[in-house]
Design goal:
With 156 residues, the protein is an alpha/beta fold. It contains two helices and eight strands. Strands 7-1-4-3-2-6-5-8 form an eight-stranded mixed beta sheet, with no helix packed on it.
């Protein structure tokens, strides 16, 4: 009988730990709080590595998520819509950049606040943007430049 009670107690502890992890994960994804948000828009030349649900960060802190991505047929740019928490009020001259967490990390949208006195209203477009930088493209330029330097030095 004592063996059975120990098994039930151990199962209960495991169940409580699993529920704790589930609650923590739900809070991290955004299911935990009912904080309100507003939408902002931005057009990028390239949104490589970004998808719906990608983090929007300010000073490294998640303040929103990408909610919509679509190609603008008139400009051939990618139009992104993202939600930002209500308590984050950005100046009108703020910038939106696609940044990388590192060589092996994913991409995210980084917001850089400007210095204007007026804030962006809901639904406004951030004009100052920088798209994703292709790491492979940079490496190919570097390798190509190094090869040219090597050939140029040998020809002299």
């Amino acid at each position: 009988m004592a063996e059975n009670a120990t098994e039930v107690l151990a199962g209960g502890v495991v169940l409580v730990a699993a529920l704790g992890f589930l609650a923590y994960a739900a809070q991290g994804v955004g299911f935990g709080g009912s904080s309100s948000s507003y939408d902002l828009r931005a057009s990028f030349q390239s949104v490589e590595g970004i998808s719906v649900g990608t983090d929007v960060r300010l000073a490294g802190v998640k303040v929103g998520t990408v909610s919509k991505l679509e190609l603008n047929p008139a400009t051939f740019y990618a139009d992104a819509t993202f939600s930002v928490q209500d308590h984050v009020q950005l100046p009108e001259d703020s910038a939106a950049l696609i940044s990388s967490e590192g060589l092996l990390g994913g991409n995210f949208v980084e917001l850089r606040p400007g210095g204007a006195l007026d804030n962006l209203p809901a639904g406004a477009e951030i004009e100052d943007t920088q798209g994703a930088i292709s790491l492979i493209g940079l490496l190919m330029k570097f390798v190509g430049k190094s090869a040219e330097d090597g050939l140029g030095g040998a020809a002299q």
